[in-house]
Amino acid sequence: MENSIVVEYSEFMRENRIKVNRYLNTVLWFFVITGPAIAAGIRGGIFHNINYGTCVSISVLVIILAAIHLGLLKKMPSSTVTCLFALTALDLLIVYMSYSHVSIYLTWFLVPLLSMLFCDKLIYL
Known about the structure:
Layout: H1 9-30, H2 34-43, H3 52-75, H4 80-99, H5 106-115, H6 121-124
């Protein structure tokens, strides 16, 4: 006799959102080291038009956004709002980095790619 678990699509999406939200929170906390990494690039002569204040600002901004997302994750783990907050936080990081002349173009590709994990074309678009 074969044991198979049939899950409704809505239940799958709810569980998927919870997992992806957890992963996005991990990504947000990982981006905290962006500031020190850029500072190392400034010291190494890779980034010329950036100051150390920008590095501190990036790290502080990401810490605040990741902490807010963690709060949302604990309160509403399967909410679409929590998903969109994380993606918007990453977009904010990209905009601030672009404004500060940090030219790391890989992040422009990765944020939309992360949104594909939600299996929802509206969130991707």
